[in-house]
Amino acid sequence: MTVVSLNAGRDALRPRVRSGNSPGERFDQDPGFHEIENTVPSQDDHARFASLVLPHLGDAYSLARWITGSRTDAEDVVQDACLRAFRAIGGLADGSARPWVLTIVRNTAYTWLRKNRPSAILAVEDLEAVESAQVIPGDPDSETPESALIAKTDAAGLEAAIAALPMPYRETMILRDVQGLSYREIAEVTGVPIGTVMSRLARGRNRVIKNIRGNAP
Description:
This protein is mainly α. It has two domains: about 35-115, Rna Polymerase Sigma Factor, Chain: A (Orthogonal Bundle), CATH 1.10.1740.10; about 120-215, Winged helix-like DNA-binding domain superfamily/Winged helix DNA-binding domain (Arc Repressor Mutant, subunit A), CATH 1.10.10. The chain has helices at about 35, 45-50, 55-70, 70-90, 100-115, 120-130, 145-150, 155-165, 165-180, 185-190, 195-215. The longest helix is centred in the last third of the chain and has 21 residues, at about 195-215. The chain is globular.
């Protein structure tokens, strides 16, 4: 399978974090977070947090920024998500922590949106209802002329096209084409079936292509 490459603008689409500073359909659902408050970190938790969570802060901030649409709000979301991750680090099994970290960041971002921008969450939930009856079959990673067009698009044009997507499509494209997560990992992070992940990716890419072509000179 061929992953649609966003190499032309991938670095530009990954905002940098300022130094120093299971699954379900509800976007404010934080699995297990109600138990985190009573978790007392051990001395080893600091080392585990540094080795398992800190390497993924760049991706965490990028995802939060794409969801909130604001660098300042993304910093607040990541700060809150890091606190939640630290409190829960004792229950994290060894292995890849990236999907776990991004799940916490995503849930924290949607909780923030539900509190500060409820209209945005309503739009997401309306789209979910439509998607539930319209899953696109097939392989969204098959190489096509459209995927080649996306790969050749300049970073600024690509960022604008992705930013114009409905939020579920936007986050799926970022998780897959920018951050390189597998379908299974995206399903884990977003709390939807793999078929829905494939549908969102296909729909998102198609909308980006139409946007790019519509703005072509």
